């Protein structure tokens, strides 16, 4: 009869431990009690590991690509300012109302009493 039996339980640490605990009950009935236990983390093959690593990069790349498609980068708004003198601005915005002179057909200011081109008096017509 063997005095020492080494048993191995495969699986993740929790699964292996559960398997061991089930087996320990059976072993105890036969008079065997656990003395030492050691869990060695299993390792994947080099190829599988590299493949997973590569897929990792691919997935990250895809995620970055999707992010780039969805989220637009900050844009730049270019505004050109031009220095304009106050008098020039006044000319552009405030144009005084004008009337046409009935005699010379030139445009004169609405408030004008006498045409500045031909000297026609507007007041004479009004009266
Ligand atoms: Zn006139």
Detailed description of the structure:
This protein has 127 residues and is mainly α. Among the domains are: 1-42, no CATH class; 95-126. It has helices at residues 13-29, 46-70, 86-93, 123-126; strands at 98-100, 107-109. It has a two-stranded antiparallel ribbon. The longest helix has 25 residues, at 46-70.
Mean pLDDT: 84
Number of helices, where a helix is a run of at least 4 consecutive DSSP H or I residues? 4
Bound molecules: zinc ion
Shape from CA axes?
Answer: rod-shaped
Q: Largest sheet, described in full? A: 2 strands, antiparallel
By secondary-structure content and strand pairing, the structural class works out as mainly alpha
Give the distance, in angstroms, between the N- and C-terminal Cα atoms: 144 Å
In the predicted model, the low-confidence regions spanning at least 5 consecutive residues are none
Strand neighbour order, sheet with most strands: 1-2
Supply Rg: 49 Å
Number of strands: 2
The percent of residues in helical segments reads 40-55%
How much strand content do the residues show?
A: under 5%
Order of helices and strands: HHHEEH
